[in-house]
Design a protein that fits this description.
mainly alpha, two-stranded parallel sheet, elongated, disordered N terminus, Ribosomal_mS27
């Protein structure tokens, strides 16, 4: 029922999609060409390698139980030139992650890996290694997250984009305004497709909306917080608070529906022009109605089944049961707050998707500039570090060669003596 309610509340978005203005917004809701351009990255000094020889060298090194250097895996990724070589690089990234040198996977190697995946049509590989970050060591920086997220949005793969947003949320990387805007755009557009959501998807979307919403001021941030808390509250009511926060950067204290109502109360009491989108308020209303109906049905079944259900009741966590018992209070409090919001003009009739699209028009272009300046500095720092590693490697090889020759000379002198 709650999933149906979400569909009903977001249904109006379909009408908006038909207008020319929204199509214009959708096209602009992408990072600019200079932002995603590869010229700066490709301008780095080349370190050409034969991948077959490099792969053979790494294999022999691993077979002898010696560590492979971060420079070797970086060279392999940088020299990818086909889709097949992307698969080979994935294998060596996995091997490197499970080697003694696993902590030294360079940030520029992660960035290069994502760019190579996008260049050779292997975006699924980038997402796979990102979702399995512990196995591959994929912890991208904000800029790298952005170009991957943008790629999914350009293709209108909003489910894939939300998978990237989930990783941004888990890594708590909503630092850049561009990341916040792109994430909210992906989330709102995915919800507008009226997806059938599993509990784990509701949890991920709810956490992403809540945390990204906390980074935004005004109606968009407040509406995202409300919808995020509502989705998390649904999970909490169905499976308990432990199912909400486990493995998530979330509060472990119960009461996510109460937090959703607190957002409404804060907006109703605030003197400014902050509003809540109607679809977010309507979703919470429908959710409370569905949960109340389910609770009433469950109570009736308990009365009929008697002792067996009593045993099941004992298995419910005490805090979780206390939160479920607050449902009638939440429902009545919602009616009061909803009335206050309506009377004070604090409900925006525009769906969250449209509000975010408007934010894109107003803010995305100006937010790109600082990102690009920071990226340019970062590429310079990465390149300086890479060149330093190359010089150090050369010095170590020269020293090893000198030691080898000295050892051979000593052996020859010993034989002559």
């Amino acid at each position: 029922m709650a999933a149906y309610t979400l569909k009903r509340c977001l249904g109006a978005v379909k009408v908006i999609r038909k207008c020319g203005n929204h199509r214009f917004i959708a096209r602009r809701c992408l990072l600019s060409t200079p932002y995603t351009d590869t010229k700066l990255w490709d301008a780095r000094e080349k370190d050409h390698q034969n991948l077959a020889l490099l792969a053979s060298l790494m294999d022999r090194t691993y077979d002898r139980n010696f560590p492979v250097s971060s420079l070797s895996i970086s060279r392999f990724v940088d020299n990818i030139s086909s889709r097949e070589e992307v698969d080979q690089a994935e294998y060596y990234l996995y091997k490197f992650r499970h080697s003694p040198n696993c902590w030294y996977l360079r940030d520029w190697t992660v960035h290069s890996w994502v760019r190579q995946c996008l260049r050779y049509g292997a975006r699924d590989k980038a997402l796979h290694t990102l979702k399995n970050k512990v196995q591959y060591g994929m912890f991208p920086d904000d800029f790298t997250f952005n170009i991957l997220l943008d790629s999914f949005i350009k293709d209108e793969d909003f489910k894939g984009a939300c998978s990237v947003v989930e990783e941004v949320m888990l890594q708590e990387s909503f630092n850049l305004p561009t990341t916040q805007i792109l994430s909210l755009y992906a989330l709102s557009n995915y919800l507008a497709t009226k997806p059938e959501l599993s509990m784990s998807e509701e949890r991920a979307l709810g956490a992403s909306l809540l945390i990204s919403g906390l980074k935004q001021d005004g109606s968009i941030g407040l509406s995202a917080q409300l919808l995020g808390c509502a989705l998390l509250g649904k999970v909490e009511m169905g499976a308990g608070i432990h199912a909400v926060f486990r493995g998530m950067p979330l509060m472990w204290t119960p009461g996510y529906l109460g937090r959703a109502l607190a957002v409404m109360e804060r907006v109703a009491a605030a003197p400014g022009d902050g509003k809540l989108s109607k679809d977010a308020v309507d979703y919470l209303e429908g959710l409370l109605q569905d949960l109340s109906s389910a609770s009433d049905s469950s109570s009736g079944e308990d009365d009929e089944s008697g002792g067996e259900e009593g045993k099941k009741e004992e298995e419910v966590d005490e805090d979780d049961q206390a939160e479920r018992d607050k449902l009638p209070l939440y429902a009545s409090r919602f009616k009061v707050l909803s009335g206050q919001l309506q009377s004070r003009g604090k409900v925006d009739p525009s769906p969250l998707q449209v509000l975010v699209s408007s934010l894109v028009q107003q803010s995305l272009a100006s937010a790109e500039g600082p990102d690009m300046e920071q990226y340019q500095r970062k590429v310079g720092e990465w390149e300086a570090e890479r060149q330093q590693l190359i010089r150090r490697e050369k010095e170590m090889k020269e020293r090893a060669e000198e030691e080898r020759r000295a050892h051979q000379a000593a052996k020859a002198a010993a034989k002559q003596g």
